[in-house]
Hints:
Distance between the termini: 41 Å
Strand content: 5-15%
Order of helices and strands: HHEHEHHEHHEHEEHHHEHEHEHHEEHE
Shape: globular
Number of strands: 12
Amino acid sequence: MNEIRNLPIGVQSFEEVKIKNCIYIDKTKFIAPLLSVGKPYFLSRPRRFGKSLFLSTLKAYFEGRKDLFEGLEISKTEKEWKKYPVFYFDFNVGDFTDEENFRRTLGLKLDEYEEIYGVRNKNATSPADRFSDLLKSAHEKTGLQAAVLVDEYDKPLLNAVGDERLVDTFRKILKSFYGVIKGEDAHIRFVFITGVTWFDKVSIFSDLNNLRDISMSEAFSAICGISQEELEANFVPEIENMAEKNEITKDECLEKLKKNYDGYHFSKNTRTDIYNPFSLLNAFADCNFGSYWFSTGTPSFLTKMMRETVFDYSSLENGIDVDSRSLEEYRLNSSEPVPMLYQTGYLTIKDYEKEFNSYTIGLPNDEVKFGLCKRLLPLYAGFYDDDKKIES
């Protein structure tokens, strides 16, 4: 039996991963290309796919934490390690039940940065005005432009699905807030925004007409998740332990891992499969081919959408064809469930037809297939109301 190593299950802090000596899949190779091409960036990936960890990695990089990057790819090319002002907004946490609580959540984060940079213009009352002042002040005080990192930008909106007034209120606040990024471009070095969905990207980020969406970019398809190459290079002891525990060969273990947790594609090129990292790490921890990602909860907005649409979900098992526009230009008020199922990770790209500019969309793996049939479809049919497994 191989030595048990630290698996970063649920750990979203790059600093914590490094300090606790957890296994880290080196994604720093993507930093240099991001810095060289432009700003701002937008990335959509399903929940628990490593977005927060990558954003935390960017945060540590812009803070000049050279010590944390020893031996990683970026350490081979980075020489300066400057400490930039970093504005990190994490919408994974916070109270988004109403406008007052949302403004308070955002205000508390701004309070923190105003304390750091010694700025508080009493005439600046809106989050957008305060953010604008902060960017200017940080640049003036440090002599360096800021890095702006936003994690799960759409969480407040998803929490408010079903309340059109609240969704519209949140959208207006966020549109004004993110509009500052373009207005204060001279004070900003880098911008990276993540979310599960991109259904509101156009309306919320309409002022950011230079926003680069890399969600379906082939060059960044493996920026989150674990590729086959990364799996076999970084998890040899875990694969061997799992094979021994289940009394199967190493090759049989790899085959079962692939069947259960692989199969995600985030670009037109479907040659590179991506494993669900949350499921893979939990499977290694338990030495069991269980259902992990799906069992952690089904987004309430997704079950609501399914209940309000008429669709033959059994067709998903064999894959269905969708045109490129419907998949890439999805909106919240659409009655089409397939694009949302893709964005949230229940479906993935199986093939792309260049001649017709269309995608074949289907279930990525057995874990999702089992979960869809055993949990989502009964919810859709109204057979039971599994509130304990519903996320807001």
